[in-house]
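User: Assemble these into one structure.

Assistant: Restating your components, then the assembled model:
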Amino acid sequence: MTALDETRPDEQVHFRTCPLCEASCGLELTVRDGAVVRVRGDRDNPFSRGFICPKGSALQRVHDDPDRLRTPQIRRGDDPATATWEDVSWPEAYAEIERRLQPIIEEHGRDAVGIYLGNPNAHTLAGVLYMRPFIRALGTRNIFSASTVDQMPKHVSSGLLFGGALTIPVPDLDRTDYLLMLGANPWESNGSLCTAPDFPGRLKRIQARGGRFVVVDPRRTRTADEADEHVAIRPGTDAHLLMAMINVLFADDLVHLGHLESITSGLDQTRELAAPFTPAAVADVCGVEADTIRRLTHELAQAPTAAVYGRIGTHTVEFGTLASWAVDVLNVLTGNLDRPGGAMFPRPAHERLATQGPGRGFATGRHHSRVKGFPEVRSEFPVATLADEIETPGQGQIRAMFTVAGNPIMSTPDSDRLDAAFRQLDFMVSVDIYRNETTRHADVILPPPSALERSEYHMAFFALSVENYAEWSPPLFESRGPAEHEILSTLALIASGQGADADPALVDDLMINGVLSPALQAEGSLLAGRTIEELQAELFGPSAVDRLVDAMIRTGQYGDWFGAVPDGLSLQKLSQHPHGLHLGPLSSRFPEAIRTSSGTIELASPPIVGDMARLRASLDRRPNGELLLVGRRHLRSNNSWMHNVKVLVKGKERCTLQVHPDDAQKLGLANGGRAEVASRVGKVTAPVEVTDAIRPGVVSLPHGWGHDMEGASMSVAAEHAGVNSNVLTDGSIVDPLSGNAVLNGIPVTVAPA
Ligand code: SF4
């Protein structure tokens, strides 16, 4: 992906996908003397068309950050606050892990080792592809990730409705006439579970072509400010509102399944489930007038095309899965699912089409967590119960932890408790580029290469993209250490007992053959007559992880099948498109995409029907005068991990407690003063920002701050510490179907500090 700028022969221009958030914008990077001197949006990228945000412009600053770890470190001393850290070689670090991990496994069993995976894993090829062999080698059931403080409800609702946890519809932003958005703020987040570079521009174009978008959110966010209508709902009540809209669709004869009629089941049960949720019954619960609910429903049903889209504020609440389910039920009942302008399923280049006919469906609860009995969901337990599993003695108690690209002490509920629990561990390993609030507990830190030292193919997000699109670029700079997939492979070999000296290529072969063998053996395969060895020899790419992607693309839905489809796609062909390759607009994927055991969209699966009683019971709840805490996003934050970049944290204090003027007056709070915020589990003191952008009765703190813990080594972040909102969130409450933590709608008291 290199072009020579003829006007500056000492400069090279490179193009690659921005790895920092889901939007996946194309970047143009100018390199001089081995350093990136300019980053701007790639104007020739057909997907992002030059769009860039402040984080993308600062990408090279993470690469250049002197606090970024370049060599492994071993901690000397028990207390993270006072310990010293020794730089060691990679063989020394691996030997230390082998020496200390094996006795724990031998004495206490494999469940004595826990693992936590942070959100950035979804943004690297190694994180997406090589975590599975590592986790398999660990053989533990104690698997946790950022999914249970984020999007797990969407995986569960998609699994139950469509049969696949990753079968997630995205709003067809570029063709829709009407978009109803709940708990989403793409003006700040740039979009999530919906890959759409320049999301704000796409929203403005809905309006420009005569359409509308409506935002439901307790805060008047930047997105709500730009919307045609803002509905300031009470936190945690999206499920009630959405059920009332389903109720109105049935009551007012607005259900039109259209092309979905023959492939949808459970319609009558859905009508019964929605019956108690009349607009009048939910109005006081939601703080939204019944007439508004009726009008929104009619607008949705009558728009030529429409989509409902719910994001983090809809998921991180106690009824997260029901709300996520109701979002897509509205898309089904209005006939907008899987049609242009509605909510559609992308076709990523690395995926094969499913075979026709019913699938295996989706289930949870194949095993349960030891202490609180939570069902596994996608093989994970809720991260909200991680502290329980470390603190509670008995067989299976977690005594050693791996964290990979994660900072659960900042990102997960009841942070102070988790911080104390991590001190009890016998051993901990972190794979991370920073010594942060969590990795300061590690005995060994293994730093992977920076984003500029690895190949880029945004695999997870091309599967959530509002246009079918692919882009690949090789590493821009050479890494001094092993590649991330090599680190994970070596950890897998240590965990499996083969040892740190075993060849990581063993794992590569396993992974690549895992793609090629099924493609070769499939009935009517275009590869008939070929051998695995021949195919392996034809793979393209500078490293094993790239060759694995090539295998996936070549046997995928646009693939060249190793020459059997001459016009088909391969990684080599993709590499000849440095600005990325547009693969066409979203197109219908039903019935192929439906993998439920009935072969239908199952509206009324038993888990949903069962959990509805809990939602019905909550109809009696009325506001009791408590203040409710919600989070918020900022364009220049990326959860916790980019606060060490000066240009992103400079300027006005961002970690403030937003309070409505009426509440501020009642509580005696002044703008710019300080307030103590207390919940059942903790308290923090934060600067007050009085603003009418927040609903009365609601206060807001952003997440990802609180960089004042001793022992972390992020010097810029420490100067802009802020407070950790997760000191206040309560790990004892989760959405029962998904295990997702409740991070919004936390009851708090607020007083002048
Ligand atoms: S919106 Fe996301 S992908 Fe685009 S430049 Fe910003 S951080 Fe990168």
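Residues 18, 20-21, 23-25, 52-53, 55-56, 190, 197 surround iron/sulfur cluster (CB under 6 Å).
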